[in-house]
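Reopening: structure tokens for the iron/sulfur cluster complex, inputs below.
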Amino acid sequence: MELLTNRAKQVDRRPMDFWERLYLISIFKGMWITLKHFFKKKATINYPEKQRPFSSVFRGLHVLNRDEEGRENCTACGLCALACPAEAITMEAAERLPNEEHLYREEKYAAKYEINMLRCIFCGFCEEACPKDAVYLSQTVTPASYKRENFIYSKEDLLIPHPKKSN
Ligand code: SF4
Ligand code: SF4
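Re-run output (same inputs, fresh job):
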């Protein structure tokens, strides 16, 4: 039969000699390989105590932006949800009331805004699609959790701190 690659190895079927039957040489060879790895630089790190530096273009957890007055930028236009290839974003729009000008920048706002981080592939399309500078991907890694519901980030989880109330 013609071989597809040159990686095939012939199996050695000759009977084992005395030293091979003792297995000592094979055991020492195996232990030597293990011992060599003790002194090699580790390929792994003690995550999460230690973290590798990220690229400057790393895209992590989203944030929802406010303007300098602390008003929410998002107008619930839905463009980010439309651009999202993973269908990770859902929202509900609401109309701003006359006494809510200090809360929302535009006449419409997101009463509910959710991102499912289990669906998100951190492509950044939502950030690019947003015409209001409202959604950004930060350099924060989404924290791990044992519960699926902890990966649904609500508007309150995503909004940056109010610039006038954070201090
Ligand atoms: S980063 Fe990509 S996948 Fe994640 S919510 Fe934004 S558009 Fe969707
Ligand atoms: S985050 Fe931007 S694109 Fe998404 S609904 Fe709000 S304003 Fe529209």
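The mean pLDDT is 93. Residues 83-86, 88-89, 115, 120-126 surround iron/sulfur cluster (ligand 1) (CB under 6 Å). Marking as resolved unless the reporter disagrees.
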